[in-house]
Amino acid sequence: MIYADHYLTQYYDQQRTSESAILVNTLDHIEINLTLNPGGSISGTVYKDEKPASGIIVVAYSNQLDAMRGSISQEDGTYRIDGLDFVNDYEIYASIESGSAPFYYNKNQTTRNRQAASKVSVEKGIDPSGINIYLSKLERISGRVINQSGIPIEGIWVSAWSTKAQAGFGIFTKEDGSYDITDLPAQADYLISVEPDIMSFYMPQQKKNISSNSDAINFIITKGLSLTGDVHDIKNYAITGAGIELKSSDFSRWTISNTKGEFTINGIPEANDYILSVYSPEKASFIPHIETELSIETNISKSIIMKYGYAISGNVYDQDGPVSNITISAWSKSLDYYGQTISDQNGHYIIKNLPQAFDYELSIDSPLYERDQQLNIAAGSVANFILSKGGSISGHVQTESGGLPGVVVKITSQSMHIEVVGLTDDNGYYMVNALKTKDRQGNAISDYFVSIYPQNYISQTQGPIMPGKSANFICTNVDFESAKTLFQFF
To answer: Domains, the chain, ranges and CATH?
Structure first.
C-alpha cells in the first residue's frame, strides 16, 4: 500500500481499497509497481473564539469509502487536506486534540451534531475551498462515580448531552471513579447519564438540567436485578446470535445469545412494564418472540423457543428494468403481523421471519410510482411487481395576502378507493404524486376530488379532475365568518 500526501491511496495492483487488493507472495520475487494518481483537496480556515486557530486537527471522512484523511491547521488557521478520492459525501470536522469532541462543518453554521454536517463534494479539477470551521467557547462537567460502599467504579461510561446545543460527549471513569467531560458548549440543560456495561450489575442513572462548567456532579450507583436465559429452536438446538432486547419506559438493554444460546442482562431496575423481544440472527429465519407487561421484581430466568419463519420474496421492475430502494410491506390481517423491507440494487426484495399465513397483503409505497398491492399472498411465496409511473395533482392555496403554508390537502377517488394526504409548502403550493392514472381495465381515472382543510378558513373541494391537472384555492375570512354564523343559526 502506498500513502502519499498529494496522491490517492494505492493498493496492489492499482486497487483503491484493501479489500480488493491483490495479495503478494514474497517467495515469488516479482516486481511490485504502482502508478500514483493525484487526488483532490479541501481547504479552509479554523477559527477559535473568532480568531484563526493553529494546531487544530481537521479530518475529511467519506461514508461511501469508509476512509479519512486529515491535516493540522497552520499559524494563520488555514488547513489543506490533499490526496482525496473524488466522492460527494465528505464530512469535515475539527478537534482541538485527538479524542476530543469534534466540530462539524455546516455551510450555515458550525455544528456539534454530526447529522447536521454539510456534505462536501470533491470532483476532478474542482477543489473546494473556504470550508471554514468555527470552534466556540468550550466548557466542562466533572464528578465521580462510586458504589454504595463508597468504592470508586472504574470503566463506567458517563455522557453529557444538551438538547439546545444538539451536542454532547462522553468518557469512561478513571481508576478513582472520576470523569471529566470537556469540549462542551456553554448550556444549562445537560443530561448526564451513567451507563454501566451490559455485564455490570450496576443500574444506569441520570441527572437533568446540569449547567456546563459544573463539578462535583457525583453519582452513587446501586446494583440491579438480572435476567438470564437461553434461546432454542423447536428441535431444542441452541440459537447463536439471536438479538435480545429488554426495555421499559425508562430502561433499555440489548445483547445477543452466545454459542450455547445463552444470554445475560444485568443491572435491571425493578419494574412491571418490561417488553422482552428476541429477534432472529441475520443469517437465519425465526419469527420474533415478544413478551409484554413482563414484571421483574427479582432475578429471573427465561427459556425462549423460537419458531421457524417464512419469507416472501420477489423482484421489482418498471419499464426500464429493476428498481431499487422501493419499500415493500407485508401485512396479515388474521395474525395482525407486519413486515417490511427495501428492494436492493438489482430490484430484489425478501421479507424474512414471517409467521405462516395465507392472507398477506403486499404493498408498494414510493413517491415516484403508483401505489400497488397484491392480496392473499401466502408466506413462502414469490411475488413480483411491475411498477408504473404515477400521475400528480398540484395547485396553490392562497389568501388575499399570499400563499397559505401547512394546509392539509386530501385527494380521493371513490372508484379506486384511494385517499392520499399532502401539505402545502411555505409558499402555499402543493403537489401529490404517485396517483393511479388507470384502473384495472385500462380506463383513465377521472374522479379525483381535491379537498383542503385550512385553519380559520372553511374547507373547500374541487373536482372531479384527472392526474396532470391543477386545483387552486382562494381562502377568505368572509367565508369563514359566514360559515360560523350559518352553523350557529342551525
So the answer is: 40-135 (2.60.40.10), 138-221 (2.60.40.10), 225-306 (2.60.40.10), 310-386 (2.60.40.10), 392-479 (2.60.40.1120)
pLDDT digits (tens, 9 = 90+) for 443-469: 999 999 999 999 989 999 999 999 999
Torsion of the alpha carbons at 240, 245, 246 and 250, rounded to the nearest 10 = 150
Q: 246 pLDDT exceeds 70? A: yes
Instruction: Kindly report, residue by residue over 331-358, the tens digit of the pLDDT.
Output: 999 999 999 999 999 999 999 999 999 9
Q: Between the CA of residue 258 and those of 201, 226, 242, what are the distances in Å?
A: 19, 17, 8
CA distance 392 to 394: 6
Mean pLDDT over each residue of the chain, to the nearest integer: 89
Q: Which of 304, 277, 284 is nearest to 353 (CA)?
A: 284
Q: How far apart are CA 153 and CA 162, in angstroms?
A: 25
DSSP for 114-180, written as a single string: GGGPPPB--BTTB------EEE--EEEEEEEEEETTS-B--S-EEEEEETTTTEEEEEE--TTSEEE
Supply 297's cell numbers. Answer: 421484581
Give the pTM.
0.62
